[in-house]
Predict the 3D structure of the following.
Amino acid sequence: MSTEKVDTKMHWHILGAGSIGLLWAAKLSLVGYRVTLILRNQDKLEQLLREPTIRRGGEHFPVNAELPGSASIISNLLITTKAYDVESAFESVKIRFSPNTKVLLLHNGLGPQQRLLELHPELELWAGSTTDGAYRMSDFHVVQAGEGEIWIGSLSCSQQDSLYQYLKCLPALHHQPLIIPRLWQKLAINCAINPLTAIYNCKNGEVLSNSECFRQMRLVCEEVEQVAMAQKIPLFETPLINKVIEVATVTATNYSSMQQDVVHQRQTEIEFINGFLCEQARQQGIATPANDAMLDQIRQVSLISDQ
Ligand SMILES: NC(=O)c1ccc[n+]([C@@H]2O[C@H](COP(=O)([O-])OP(=O)(O)OC[C@H]3O[C@@H](n4cnc5c(N)ncnc54)[C@H](OP(=O)(O)O)[C@@H]3O)[C@@H](O)[C@H]2O)c1
């Protein structure tokens, strides 16, 4: 663990007590910060208050918990919901912000970051990307499947590093002043791997061995590169397809979150991954038939599972 001194009076609220939210509750508690989970409803709150601890693997961490409508001021807010819940979760607590509140968004995909920045230019808004892997054993019990890295950067002003100063005591956390290109890099890889693993119902590595699947992946990559280039977003030093092959190889035995969401008939984050890409392309007048096809097919699968 880092030997950085932490301000033990610092209080973090976490909105989105799922896998990543619980993982961060443990990380922040371990370095000495006070943590309060903001839970969706009274049932969840009562459940946690019966034994106010969360578990990460075999370790227990005491936490506070409250509802979004609680009266206390929020100074530091970490939002770890799925991309499709970010804006409504944010709305449910924004009345509790002070002029100095800092908000860190940590979710896959793009869209909510830009919309919240547009709607709240006065807010100190940060975004992050993580390669941590985690899943929940039960409601307040998380298992860390893989220790990854975290990059955070300010959306409001790229020179600012105040939040990073508070968080740099966390292991494997990096300051990324240009956070948008970093989020695009993850988006680019997700556009190519996630929908295909869901459509072909396979592990990450298997998308490389199926020739039709690989052909589609190559087309998706070419379109993503075109859209990123039109927006002057640098992706990787090598062609995107090479990076995607590298990631699919390293994570060959993993199932992507989208594959899992489709199998378990949960809402996917497709609208914030290929959906975001297609919308950006439309605004630039760029055709993206391969990404449109990914979007349509995942929407279809989701519709079937809703019936
Ligand atoms: N898990 C991973 O390994 C991993 C790795 C890298 C990135 N990510 C990304 O991180 C984000 C979070 O993923 P996750 O796996 O942690 O998801 P998750 O386990 O589904 O957790 C999301 C949590 O947010 C809660 N929530 C949603 N709306 C809320 C609201 N309005 N008020 C209070 N709570 C609310 C959900 O509550 P309910 O359960 O009541 O719906 C759920 O507990 C996603 O974008 C994901 O793609 C995940």
In short: The chain is about 45% helix and 20% strand. The pocket of NAP is lined by residues 15-21, 38, 40, 68, 80-83, 85, 88-89, 92, 107-108, 130, 132-134, 136, 257, 269 (CB under 6 Å).
